[in-house]
Design goal:
Helices cover about 40% and strands about 15% of the residues. The chain is of the alpha/beta class.
Length: about 475
Amino acid sequence: MAPSTLTRTPVPDTVAAVRTLYESGATAPLSARVRRLHALRAMLTENESAFEQALWSDLRKSSAEAQLTEISVVMAEINHALRHLRRWARPKRGPVPPTLLPGRARLVPEPLGVVLVIAPWNYPVQLLLSPLTGVLAAGNAAVLKPSELAPETSALVTRLVPHYFSDGAVRVVEGGVPETTELLAQRFDHIVFTGSGTVGRVVMRAAAEHLTPVTLELGGKSPVWFDDDAHLKAVARRLAWAKFTNAGQTCVAPDYVMTTPDRVPALVDALRSAVEEMWGTDPSTSQDYGRIVNDRQFDRLVGYLDGADVQIGGTYDRGERYLAPTVVTVPGTDGRPVVGPDAAPPVLREEIFGPILPIVPVASAEEAVQVINDWDKPLALYVFSSSPRIRRLFEQSTSSGAVVHNAALVHVAATGLPFGGVGPSGMGAYHGSYSWRSFSHEKPVLSMPLWPDALRLVQPPLHGRGVRFVRQLMRRG
């Protein structure tokens, strides 16, 4: 499919039209929310093969990978929202302190308004439509900005959305940096952005002009700790799958592995076997192994291999944008492992976002904790250890968007858990009920009866006995 040739409406006019629709009240009724979630589900189910083909064209994702990491993830979000929507939308009784009795309070959820969703190229379906699910469930209208670096998927979404959302409650703006910049100059009621920290700062500065709240999913270097010798083969297979799925172009992919020096040779051998089991001796011929998105990213990744101690893979083909599943070993700086801008090896300075997995020897789990805490809080932390003490150490002594034991990547598919970062790896969270909370405002509604008039106690003229009584009630909380 060629990129969309639809006549483009000016960005300000698109946003204004969506806001007009929202302000008409058309998106708020529960029946309208359910109808739009069904429309989103139909858009996916009725065009599954087209989405699979677009993902193959953009990233060479196999149909199985497209289903498991993109389409089915969104379908699960939609079905979860439909199953729980009525309960989420029901007003809840709110607490009232003794000083305001016999008043009564309710928490009434209401939509925020018009939400902008800016998606990245690496999971161009999941990271565009999964947030949209929560946006629609909460009764909002939406403007979608798919990534121009996944042009086939972007064009497909642009073509399908007007058909399935014919009233204009969801609209798409295609384009690159100029269009995104123009979008960010408009007023929105919430912005969801997934991408790099550099662009995240741009989004946040633009949002500040309108005091717009943001949900930022920014990634970073997600570390791994390994010491589970008894389950080495299973660990290596899970680790290789999580790292090399989508050719490593995943924000929560394992970025580097820390383990003790004596475990490195066995881990390398186990990873080599795991790669061969899943993608064969020549992964370039595997239908299940992806490609790098563009030449710029390919050249950046190949540059990491200069001077690296390659243990597995390292082969590449620029014409195909193929980079084999690669494992490198990286010694510490002056005998001490360093991750972040002060690291000597380029592969440890920034998020890799590709199929290169460094193994960093460390003296102990405690030293690994120090390495993690010496730099930005990661989006995810993966721990492969049979020791309860070690698992508690990483849970209690580090901060990250999530901790996963004995697996990696899979927490993204848990619809009941919040997905989000902390600090430089992001802010805010969504998925399931957390999407509802992010894209709704729980409005307190307090009702005070005129009789009995309890407020007389705090109105002039103020008397000592009444003031003392109210003060005691207030301090009870």
